[in-house]
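Q: Got a minute? One more chain.
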Amino acid sequence: MSFQKLQFLYGLILLLSGMSCTQAQKEQSNEFSGSESCIECHENFYKLWQPSYHAQAMMPINAEFMAKHGVPNSESIDVEGHQFHVEFKDSTMMMYEHDGEKLVATYDVIYAMGGHNVYTFLTPFEKGKLQNIPLAYDANREEWFNYPMAGMRHFSDEYPEDEALPWKDDLFAFNTGCYSCHISQLSTNFDLETDTYHTTWKEPGINCETCHGPAGEHVRIFKALKEGEEADKLGLISTKVFTQEQNNAACAPCHAKMNPITPSFMPGDKFFDNYNLTTLEDRDFYPDGRSLGENYTMTEWMMNPCIEMSDLHCVTCHTSSGRDRNRDNPNQACLNCHTNRIKDMETHTGHPEEVGLTCLSCHMPKREFVGRFLRSDHSFRPPMPEATIKFGSPNACNQCHKDKSPEWANQIVKARPNGDYQEETLQWAQMIKEARDMNWENVEKMYEYIRNPETDEVVANSLIRLLGNFPSASKTEVLIDALNNKSELVRSSAAYGLGGIITEEVKYALLKACQDNIRLVRVQAANAILSFPQDQFTSEQRTIIADAEKEYVASMTSRLDSWSNHYNLGLYYQNKGEVSQSLSSYETAARLYPESVLPLINSSVLYSYVGNNEKAEQNLKKVLEFDPKNEAANLNLGLLLAEQGRMDEAEKALVTAFEANPEQQGVAAKNLCVILANKGDLSGAVKYAEAAYKASPENPNYGYTLAYYQMQNGQKSEAIIILEKMVKGTPEFLTAMNFLADIYWRDGKKELAIKLYQDALKINGISDQDKAALQQALNTLKSSL
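A: Always. Here it is, folded:
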C-alpha cells in the first residue's frame, strides 16, 4: 500500500482546516467586506498585498491569469496508463484525457493554486468537489509533471512498495485538503446525507480579513468619522498588540500539519485551544526532526531554540502578506542576538567571506519536498552530517558540497571547537527511530527524556505518542508526570496515552486534566477517561467529565466531511457501550472514504459482538480488497472464521496476519498452533506456539500452550524448562504449576511435586478457593507416598 495512502488513512497527514472555515463566520458573513474595502484608507498596503503569494494563493483561470503568469500548454504526460495534456485558449484552460488515440474525457480547469514554486489546477467534480488535476507546472524548472507521482516518498528502506495515489483520490480534492489555506471566509456547506459540497467563499486568496477578522464594523466606524474626529475603537483585530505566541498562532493554521478540534479559530486565539499538531511520530519527518514530506513549518518552528531565547516570531521576518522583510539583508533578524558571529562570518562558518554565506545558508536551507515544493528549514538548527549518516536526513553542508560525502562533512564539523553539538540530537533521534520500530530496549532512556523539564517539547511529545505502541504498565507513571509538563501539547498527548489504563491514580490524574486551561488537553483527557466505568465517579466528578466530553464531541463534529472524525466518534460511542451509534459512525466513516480500513475493522468486531457475523466478515473482506496483507483485518477474519468452524479459511487468514508481523503477532500464532494441532501437525503447532511465546513471554497462556504441545510432541525436557520459568516468573498462574507438578510426579520426582504445592500455598493474593484446592492436592500427594 502507498505510503501516501497509509498517511491519509491513519491520520498522519492531517487535513488542513484554515481559520476561516467556521460556522460563526458564516453567520457573520455580512460583516466581511472583502479586500477591496481596504483600498480607500490602506492603498499602499493593498498594493503590497495584491501581488503577494497570499493574495494569489488561488486564482481564477482567465485572460488576466494567462497574460500575467504565462504558463504554457503541456505535452502529453502518462498518468495511470492514460495520457493527459492541457491547453490554454483565449481565457479558458482545458485538460484532455486519452487512452491511446481515443479521447476519454475533457475537463474544464477553472482555478490555479500557488505559483511560488508549483502551480496546481482545479477542475469541477461530482458532488460539488473541486479536484486537483493530475498535471502540475514546476515554475522553477518551467516544466509540467505528473503531480500524484511526485508525491511518492522515496525511501526504499522503510517503504519499498510506495506508489502514487490515484489522481481522483479525496486527498487531492480541494474541498477536503487544501481549501481554506487558499481562499478566504469559506463555508464548506457539506451535506452529510448526500456527501455533497456547496462550498462558498468571500474571495480567492488569503485576504486582509483572514488575519484581522471581519472588517464591516471597522469600515462603518471610520466612514462615519467627521474630519478631525478620532475613533474610540478599531472595529477589527489589531495584530500590532499580539504577543509572540499570538503571532505564531495566527500563522500556524495554514502553516502546520495539524487537525482542528474546533470550527472557530480567530487570530488572537490560542493555537492549542483549536488544533492538534503532528510531530515526529509521523514518518514524514526524519528521526532527527528534519522534514521528509510537506510538514508546513510549525512543528520545526517549535523546535527552534530562538523562540525560547528571544521574542522572535513569524512576523519578525515576514509581513502579513507573506513577504520576506529581510530579503535584502538576510542576516538582519539574527543581529540582535548574534552580532559577533555575523561580524566575523568567516570564523563562524569556516568559509571565506567571498563565498557569500548568510545565516540562512546553514541554519535555514531551502529543500525540495514531495510534490516539488520548496520549504526553508525553520528549526534554525546547524548542519548535522552525522544525522545524515545515521538516519538519511539532509544537511546543509552536503546540500552545497554535493560532490562530497556526509562523512567528509562530519569530520570537518567534529574538528570545530564546538564539534560535539550534534550529540544531543543524535541521542534523541535514535530514541525516536527505535520507538517507531517498536524497539523498547532503551525505553528507560525515553522515560528519562520525557521526564526532564529541559527537553524539547516536540521530541518529548513524539516519544509519548510513540509509547502508545508499548504494551507495558511501566509507562503509566511517566505519562501521569507528563500531565504536569509546561507544554500544553505534551500534556494533551500524555492524557491521550493514559486511555485504557484503569487505576485510581490514572483516574484522578485524568480528572485534573479534564479541567486544564487548554482545550486540547481537556479533549484528550475526556477521550481517555471514558475507559473508566461511570459508576466509579461521584456526581461532581461526572459533571467535570461531562463538560470535557462535550468539547470532545464538538471536536469530532467540527468537520462532518472528515471520515476520521466519524471514526473517532465510533470509538467514543463504543467506549460508552452505545453499540448502534458506534456502528453508525463507523459506517459513515467508511462511506465517506471507502478505503478507510480502521472503521471497517472496528465495526466488524462490533458486528461480531452483536451476532451479525455475515456483516463482520463482509467488512473485513472489504479491507482486504484494498490491503490484502492487512494484519488486523486478517487476524480478525481468521478468528471469526475459526469460531464458525471454517478452519482452512481461518488458517489462511491467520498465516497472513502472522507473516505481516511475526515478532509481535502472538494471537495469530497461538490460534494457528491450535488449528495445526487439531489437524495432527504437532511440529507445526509447536513452531507457532514458540512464536507466540517469543512475541509475549510475559503472557502465561502462551507459555502454558507451548509447554503443553511440546509434551504432546515428545519434547518433555523443553516443556519442563518453560514451565519452570513460568513457576518462577508468574507463580500465581497455578495452571502451569499443576502441569509441572504432574510431570514431576509421573517421573517419580515426588518431592519436587510436593515442594511446588507447598510453595504455591505461600503465594500472596491467591483466592481461598485456590488455597483449598492446593491443600487438597498436596494432601493427596503426601498420602500416596
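A: The chain has a mean pLDDT of 92.
Q: Perfect, thanks.
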